[in-house]
Amino acid sequence: MAIEIPENVVVSRLDALASWCRKNSLWPMPFATACCGIELMATGASRHDLARFGAEVFRFSPRQCDLMIVAGRVVMKMLPVLQRIWQQMHEPKWCISMGACASTGGVFDTYCVVQGIDRFLPVDMYVPGCPPRPEQLIQSIIDLQDIIQQRGTIRGVEFTAAARQQPKRALIELPILGDVRTPPHHNGPIPPATLASGKDRA
Amino acid sequence: MTDPAVISALTAAYPDVVTSEFRGDVRAMVPRESLIAVMSRLRDEQGYDMLSDITCVDYLRYRDATDRFGLVYLLVNTTTAARLTVRTFVNEPDLDVPSVVPLWPGANWLEREVWDMFGIRFTDHPDLRRILLPEEFTAHPLRKDYPLQGRGERHNFPVIRRAEA
What we know:
heterodimer, A: alpha/beta, 9% strand, B: alpha/beta, five-stranded mixed beta sheet, two-stranded parallel sheet, elongated
């Protein structure tokens, strides 16, 4: 026997309902350290208007946020701060790595710049660009909303999935590019030994 | 412009000071032993009352260089707007240089930066700690024998995974 339901009642799963609520009220935490932060501000401002997707209220307290947007390069002195802020955010929480520097270190392959925050933090979405346009950031938030809707569960089971526990590249040291013994005023052709050391660079 | 009388008086008082000029800007190479005496004289008698900057150059494997580190002190006379560059050279392993903080208190952070980046020890500095790099850092990264990509300092952090956060 079929159960009659009124036509203003929708049947769904509780997971889908929770994900629908979560994805439409993302509260971003702006971790803006460089020029990507300017684009991040433009994204939240009136011209691009992130409010159309329910994520316009930037909170500067990690206790009130569930989406961290890392916009800009992160140096090794800043990384413990970033990790502390990430740990202070309430679950469920997501992370967007915005721009080339946050994702890979960008052009700053120096002794103090972290070569991608995903070595030390879980990242859900990467935005390419240097810096990305606000449209790209908006697209990443829309994509993140899709992921939340598709994979989200009310208990956050998707966060503990085994796929996310794969070890990252954090402790792999890149080989040193170039021969430090080369005199700095050497103007001739580069010796072959210098090129060979950079060939197998990760 | 630096007053030529100032320079001639300085070299007369300290014969081991070597001066040179380039387009009106005068440099004075001062031995480390007479640095404080020369600086005191410049400040008290010649009116160089402002220390604009302290920085350092690593001359490792540099053409025709005879010393490893060259310290650069940029002085300004705020009355006459005259500028003077004072240089002194140090070599490993003796990298002690007398601090000029007693003369110009603004030298405090400048000397901390030179210590941080080059490892020049300023004796009698009131608070010679690292100023830019973290406390745990052991190297002095602006030295020419330090690799650009570091010695693994940027990798020694705990990795936070989803389950731990």
